[in-house]
Amino acid sequence: MSQRNIILIGPMGSGKSTIGNIIAKRLHRDFQDSDHFIEQRTGVDIARIFDIEGEQGFRDRETSALRELLKDDGRVIATGGGSVLRAENQQLLKQHGYIIFLDTSLNQQMQRLRRDKKRPLLQTDNPRARLESLLQERRPIYLDLADLVVKTDKRMARRLAADIINQLPENLK
Ligand code: S3P
After folding, report:
1. Ligand 1 lined by 121 (C-beta under 6 Å)
2. Most CB within 10 Å of its CB: which of 125, 128, 138, 155?
3. Rounded distance, CA 113 to CA 62, Å?
4. pLDDT confidence of 2, banded at 50, 70, 90?
5. Pairing verdict, β 76-78 and 5-9
6. Probe target for ligand 1 pocket from 35, 86, 114, with the most ligand atoms within 8 Å of CB
7. Burial (0-12, 13-18, 19+ Cβ within 10 Å), 86
């Protein structure tokens, strides 16, 4: 019997891929990361896609990736931080999975992303201000979409993943 997808949403540096991977292993499910999927499909990294096609081009690819990944059931899927922006994506996510929001503080994001060179939106003089404004815009959407909200601060990934699994509805475990 196929199970609903488990979808992780949240800002850059919230640990979606790390936590998603652990949850997938523990539940013996397939794990997919939408950014990674896009990079594999295109053969170039996300920064390069932003360079060549702009954010709009990347967002189109992101929507296609989500459509593709959500065709099947039973997966654990880590999304990109901005994937919740389009109404179309919001519908897709809601229809095709149980949504977990990793609610992370700005400080923790900064700790994780201080030296990041891979994320085009953070290549600015003031990445903290950028993260703050993105969070302000997106946090209400994350909260609205989420079936489960988990604070991630100061917790080890393994511990957090175990806590999340404990909180999942029985039919998803
Ligand atoms: C983005 C987040 C990134 C990636 C791209 C844009 C965003 O994914 O999709 O750089 O708009 O917040 P992560 O959330 O995995 O870092």
Report:
1. yes
2. 138
3. 21
4. confident
5. parallel
6. 35
7. middle
Task: Report the residue among 84, 113, 121 best suited for mutation to probe ligand 1: largest number of ligand atoms under 8 A from its CB.
Answer: 121
Q: How far apart are CA 106 and CA 128, in angstroms?
A: 8
Is the CB of 145 within 6 Å of ligand 1? no
Would you say residue 145 has pLDDT above 70?
A: yes
pLDDT digits (tens, 9 = 90+) for 101-119: 999 999 999 999 988 999 9
Close Cβ partners of 1 (under 8 Å, ≥ 6 residues apart): none
Buried b / exposed e along 94-104 (16+ C-beta atoms within 10 A): eebbbbbbbbb
Q: Is the CB of 81 under 6 A from ligand 1?
A: yes
Ligand 1 site, residue 150, Cβ cutoff 6 A: no
What gap in Å lies between CA 153 and CA 160, rounded to an integer?
9
Q: Are 47 and 121 in contact (CB under 8 A)?
A: no
- Whether 66 is in the pocket of ligand 1, judged by its Cβ within 6 Å, is no
Q: Ligand 1 pocket, 80 CB below 6 A?
A: yes
- Alpha-carbon dihedral of residues 87, 17, 100, 28, nearest 10 degrees? 120
